[in-house]
Amino acid sequence: MKMGKVVRRLVGALSTALALVSFFACSRYESSAIDLVPSDSCAVVVVDWSTLRNDHDLKRLFNGDQFEAVLQRLAVDSSSVKSLVVFSAVNTQVKAGMLLRGSFDKQKQIATLKTRGWREESVDGHKVYVNGNDYAAMPQSNILFAGTREAAAAVFRALGNSRERFSSSSSYKKISDGMTSRNKPIKAFLVMPQGTLDMADAALEATSVALSLFDLGGVGALLKQLNIASGFGLNLGSGSNRMYPVEMCVLMRDEKAAALVSGSLNLLKGFSTAASNSNRDEQARQALHNMSITRVREVLSIRMTVPQAVLMPPSTR
Fold first, then answer.
1. 84: left (phi over 0), alpha (psi -120 to 50) or beta
2. Is there a contact between 80 and 25 (Cβ–Cβ < 8 Å)?
3. pTM for the whole structure
4. Mean of the per-residue pLDDT values for the chain?
5. Which of 110, 117, 208, 316 is the most exposed place for a label (fewest CB within 10 A)?
6. pLDDT of amino acid 270
7. Domain architecture of the chain: domains with CATH
8. What is the mean pLDDT of the segment spanning 186-193?
9. Cβ of 170: how many Cβ atoms within 10 Å?
10. How confident is the model at residue 311, as a pLDDT?
11. 54 band by pLDDT with thresholds 50, 70 and 90
């Protein structure tokens, strides 16, 4: 399978499974990579691979085996990767990619790519390596890019101009500042470009998908029907005793909408005291009952602890 298709499939799988996609005041391990994500990205997933690699369940949720197949195509040792960022613009066929941050020998990495059939070309004056429709580059000595040609060009623009960075957008900053959990192994963002009506619908749909992950679709349906969400963030931590901390951060259209939804969510939480008919329903009910909702201006932060059985489907292996 071509790497470009794998990258786009990763973006799609993460978008669905993690509510984007379905994650930043940037933590230390992601600071340099997130600053290279292009400004017009709408779906971004950040993963602490050094942690995830050794967490079987989270790795399965992330489709880690598929990611490792991409690493093999790039001739990258999985243990050398510390973190990664997967990003996509509205049109994933045109602009999608990932940034790997780790301990790389730049000259050796480039030489290995060439021996595997990657040819050297130039994009806007920057060296890139091409194999079919797949592009690879090393914008910094500790960062390896892989993805589409347009994504490669956008990464180099972000490197040279802070205004070209996803991390400079006001929506990203508001969602990041609204997140109370730091240094979690998986984070995701869905931010709709300003003035893009189609992305508003996508953001709302993603919010609904996110909450339906936990059989709490009523919450997602509420947000979707109100048609007032303009961005979304998700923070997923490592599990303990088969329980996983989850934080969802929703950027509403304005403070009035945020106050309305906050009140509605608290009302829904109150209804969670009703008895459930199955064990799975009981787990979802308990997660909803323990949900914490905070609001800072137009940003809602929703925190809960979710059972593994609710968050992840049983493994088929």
1. beta
2. no
3. 0.75
4. 74
5. 316
6. 63
7. 3-162 (3.40.1000), 168-311 (no CATH)
8. 79
9. 11
10. 62
11. confident
- Between 19 and 133, the more confident residue is 133
| Residue 252 identity (one-letter amino acid) | M
Tokens coding 189: 């963002």
Q: How far apart are CA 261 and CA 207, in angstroms?
A: 13
Distance CA 42, CA 203 (A): 9
Q: What mean pLDDT do residues 136-160 have? A: 95
CB atoms within 10 A of CB 127: 13
Tokens 């691979």 sit at which residue?
49
Q: What burial class does residue 256 get, using C-beta atoms within 10 Å of its C-beta: 0-12 exposed, 13-18 middle, 19+ buried?
A: exposed
The whole-angstrom separation of Cα 148 and Cα 109 is 19
Per-residue pLDDT tens over the stretch 161-170: 999 999 998 8
Placement of tokens 């349906």 in the chain:
221
Bridge partners of 121, per DSSP, are: 128
DSSP string, 79-116: GGEEEEEEEE-S-TTTSEEEEEEE---HHHHHHHHHHT
Number of CB atoms found within 10 A of residue 84's CB: 26
